[in-house]
Structures are given as structure tokens and as C-alpha cells.
Specification:
Elements lengths: L4 H6 L20 E6 L9 E7 L1 E2 L36 E7 L4 E10 L2 E3 L6 E3 L1 E8 L2 E2 L3 E2 L3 E3 L9 E4 L2 E4 L3 E7 L2 E11 L3 H9 L9 E3 L18 E2 L5 E6 L11 H15 L9 E3 L5 E3 L8 E2 L11 E6 L10 H18 L6 E6 L4 E6 L1 E3 L11 H4 L2 H14 L2 E6 L4 H12 L6 E6 L9 H8 L2 E5 L6 H10 L3 E5 L7 H9 L3 E5 L4 H9 L8 E6 L3 H14 L3 E4 L6 H10 L3 E5 L7 H10 L4 E5 L4 H12 L5 E6 L3 H13 L4 E4 L6 H10 L3 E5 L15
Parallel strand pairs: 16-26, 18-22, 18-25, 19-22, 26-37, 27-28, 27-29, 29-30, 31-32, 31-33, 33-34, 35-36, 35-37
Antiparallel strand pairs: 1-2, 2-15, 3-4, 4-14, 5-12, 5-13, 5-15, 6-7, 8-9, 8-10, 8-14, 11-12, 17-21, 19-20, 23-24
Helix pairs in contact: 4-6, 7-9, 7-16, 8-12, 8-16, 11-13, 12-15, 12-16, 15-17
Amino acid sequence: MSRPLSALLAAVLSATPATAGAGPVAPALATTETTTTGTTEASTEATHRSAELGAVEAPLSDLTTGSADAVPTTSGGAEISGGELPDTADPTLRAEVDTPEGVTVVGLVWEGEAAVVDPVTGVTSGATASVRVRQGGEWGPWQSLGESIPADGTDDGDGRWATDATVVVDAEDVQVELSGQVATARVETWTNAVTSDDIARVAALPPVSSTSKTLPIGTREDWGVDRSIRDTPIISSTSKLGVTLHHTVTAPVYDPEEVPATLRSIHNYHARTLGWGDIGYNMFVDQHGRVWEGRDGGLEKNVQGAHAVGMNTDWFGLSVIGDHETQPVKSSQHTSIAASAAWVLNTHGADVRETRSYYNRTRGWTRTLPIFHGHKDVDYTLCPGINLIAIMDQLRVKIATEQLARRTAAHRVGGADRYAVAAGMAREAFPQGTSTAYLAGGYALADALGVGPVAARSGSAVLLTKSSSVPSTTYQALSALGVREVVIVGGTATVTDDVRAALVARGYTVRRISGADRYSLAANLSTRLPTLGGTVYVASGATQTDALSGSAAAAVKGAPMLLTKKEVVPWATERRLREIGPSRVVVLGGPTTVTDDVLTRLRSIVPSARVERIGGADRYAVSAAVARDAFGSAGAAVVAAGTAPADAMTGTQAAARRNAPVLLVKQSCRPASVGSAMGALGVSLTVLAGGTNSLQWQAGSTSC
């Protein structure tokens, strides 16, 4: 049982001294420690400890004192009876590491023979790895760390092996043993404490509901991903064939607030210790009914995982946070597992009722696999545990029902205000960081209407500032993204030189793009787009919502966004159109915002271009029509409230990353025109731009 949350938060990040006489002392070996710092608002420091294993002289059975009925804190398989390890003639190595308070991942890395688990008997052959932990001064039972996995990011290991991440909560000390033909070995631990940010974000993420059409999914930012770990995801143009189910081998009882720290610790172990570059699984489900994004790249896409040898490109890795070799599956997990798997299968066009003949090139076998199967079905392992394996048929029935319900998944990028939402959108759009950010006035959005396509073309973030001072959330985003150059959008009337001076004082290179008015500013911004000809979007400079709808379309097409008055084409716009010489001009909005006289004038300015209007009964219908025109298909969409133009504007950068439209909705539902467009495009994931005051979770999935 984990300690009370108040104790977790009050604790200092330091190891608890071992209790005298509580158990045998491991060989006195040097332990190295490093601390890595994440970049979220609250501290997400991870403590890393590593120790080489040393030879054990005394018999193994004499070196165990823990009771079999001590509080279990981890399990990688069957518990060893009586807390004793079996006698063996193979050399045995041991080490002990004291761990800071928090959620710790333990793993072994070695050179030598692999550890192979018989999926029928559960017996490990080759190397044998075991662990036990001390809590409250008492050692728990020895437990197996299970089978080995490649330690070098390859599928074959090449003689370098590791155990998968085993998670313990509030351990004072960890003791490991490794028996077999092993040359060298070390134990690695990664510990993360629960933060105030974790508590707030877990509270904001609702569990999966059996009565809702929405599948809420916590983002990587929600679990506090360490942005200093930057790896480019491998994305395939094909679809996933199905889902491979895993469990994380986690402490059997944990608090909801401990889940983000758990994911951070697993992320560090997978990315840094194992060299995988990122967390291995595509998605996680916790025992409290919440769903979490795993590997970077977009859940709606075929992102190559690192979860099962020879299966990572074609099969989606879904992992349940828990140890279901020893623990039953909660009813809340039934719903969240089924809803998550059904959403994945619908997104990739697979049917849980079917099977698939599959050739695993790495393992060299061909098997007929259920579309939804366990890790044990494809490798030598007990994963996902006997209790999950026992209900696989029940889950398949529930998944089939969920597939008919066709939920829409939802991420949320929220914040206390428009500045925080913009910062979150920039993080969402640039997980690998970016060197340049465009900075617009938070209450001068007319100046920024043309910035979306320009920023997308150069791979730059879009952030917001106050007129004379930079908000702390904007500064934090600049730091997290690794920005070196800031481009201020607009004149000094909207963003003063005080902002420029403050940024220069912090070491940023700062330049400004401005114009005599919003029309000339949009024209000046468009000169940053090198392509001539093609499509140009023209929207009202007075009615912002039409331009916001077109910004994502323009960003994807690399097209400029120019502005016009209601009845007259401004000279700056006319001049820029003549310079570009477009083949198509798309006017956004109906005659009440841009009159037919303007279209007539545009045809005379660029007579070789096809000038057409995309309009609609309201701003929602316009956004839907623009999306249908610009996108043949889209797995995701950024969804913003029609009454929150700032969120829609900064959401363009996240939309561009996903090759997705920006759609406008009402606070609690999507108008029929938007729902129809989402269906036509194949949108299965919505990214909600803004907090619950602007958008409720169901806004992108429930029809008005």
C-alpha cells in the first residue's frame, strides 16, 4: 500500500537510511547518482541511481530474510516461496541501492545470456533476475524480474540484455540478484516524486465513462514528459493491424496521483537506460479508469512502438498500469481497456472479431493472431498476466460493442488563460522543440491572423504576450522549447518595446514584423512564404473567425492568408496578390462579411486565377466547409470554441503538426455541419483548445 499522498508531497527527495538488522547487506559497491530536470511548470526532477553488481559468496538461501507475507511492492512474475531464491550452480551477482521517496523503476542491464520465460510453466531459463524491496524497515519477498529484453534498442540484443521496467512505490532500498552466465551487470533505478502539477492534472482528466461518447486521453504533457529526451518518432503510412495488450508490472496498489510519476520513471528507463529514445508503449490505461498517451507521434497515426519484438510497426502497444499476474482486473479497467482498444481498432480500420495470419520476421514464425491479443501470444513472457489473459474473450466482446459506439477521443490543451493555452499548444506542436517563436499580442489578434501559415512553413511556434510585459507561462514555453529567436508580430501600439527589451535582456535575438495596419501586416507576413502561384486565402480583417478557420488550411497548403475589408480590397492586399500571381483565390465567409463586389475586384486583380467563396450559415459551418475543401482526410482535428478566437489562432500550430483542420464548436457540443465534416474526413481524435470554461470534454463528440 502506498503512503498517504500528503506524506509524499511533504517528503524531501532523499533516500531513507537502511534499518539496522533488517536484512543482509549487499556488497559495498559504488553507486552513481544523477538528477535530470523536466520542463513542466512544477518540478519533475528524476533521480537516477546505478550500481554494478558484485559476486555473492554465501549461499543464496542464507541471504534472504524477508517474509513471504510482507507487503508486496512489485512483481515481475511468480513470487518465490518463503522469500528464498532457488539454489543454483551458476555464478550469482548482487547489489543494493537506496532509493529516494516516490515512484521508482528498477531494472537490470547485463552482458551475457538472456533470461527466457516459458509462457506455459512460468519457469525462467538462462539468466535469472530477482528483486526485493524494503519498506518500513522490513524486506519483502524475493520476486522474479521476468524475461530479458534487448538493451541496445535492437530486436536481437546482441548479448546485451535488460529486464523491463518494474515499478515500486515508496521503497526505502532495493536489492537485486542475477544468476547465470553473466559477464557484467548493473542495477538502474529512476525515481520521480509526485508533484502538485500531477495532482491538478489527474483531477482535470476524467476517467472513461460507460455512458459517454468521448474517450478522454491524458497527453504526454499531462504526465510531465521530460522534454530534454528528444527522439524523432517513426511513423508509417500503413495502418496498425490490431492491438497487443501488456501490463507494466507495477505496484499492485497505487494512488491516481502517482500515475504521472510512474509514467515519467518508465519513460526515463525506456529512453535513457534501454536506449529506446522514448517510452515503449503507445498508450496506457491505469487502474482508476484513466487513459494516457504513451509514445510520441500522435495516437491517430501508425507510430512505431517498442513493446514486442518484431511487432512494433504493425501492432499497437496498449499497456495496463498494474501487475495482473497477481492482481485481479478492476471493473473500471474493463471499460477503459475496451474503450481504448475499440478506438484504436476503429481508427486503423480493424475489427476485433477477426483474426490475422502474421509473419514475425524477427522471430521467424507465422501465427494466426486475434486482432486483440496479449503479449504472451507473440513472445516468451507471462505478460499481460494471468488475470488479464483469463478475461481476454470477455474483453473482445466488450470491445466489439464499443466499436459500434464509435467514441471520439479527446486530448485537452488547456490553461488558466489564453497565454497558457498558447504555451500548451506550442508544446503540443513542437515536442522536439524549435529555435524560433512568433510572439503576438494576446488582445491584438487581428495582427496575428496571417501568422499561422508563416510559422508552420518555418517550423516556428506561436505564443502570446501582453502589451508591455511577457507572461510567465510564455517565458516557460520559450525555455521549454529551446527558442533562441523571437519574432514580434505587430507594431509598438500592440506589443511595446518594453517586451522587446525584456526578451533581449534574457538573451533572445528579437526582431519585429509590422505594417501600417492589419492588412499590410498580413501582406508583409506572407512574404516569408517563398512559393509563388498556388492558392491564396483571403478573409475579412474585421471578422476574425473566418480567418481562423482558414489558417490551418493555409498552413497545410503552404498558402498565404491575406485580409480584406468588407467592400474594398486594401492596396496592400492587391499589391501582394499581383506579386504572388495565384492560380486560386479562396474567399472565406459569406456576403455579410466579404461582399460580392470584393470577389469581382479580386477577379480583375488576378484575372488568371479561379476566385471562389467558401461560406456557410455561421462561423461553425464556415469552418466545416473550409476543412472539407482543404483536407481529403484527417485523423485528428483541433477543436476550439467559436467564442474563443485566441485559442483557435494558436491552435493552428498543433493542427499543422498533425496535418489537421481547426474546427469551431460550441461549449458543450458540435453543430451538425461540424459533425458531418468530421465524419467525412474520418476524424477520430480531437485536440480541445482551451479549458473547461471554454470547452467541455464532449464538445467535439456530442452533436448539438
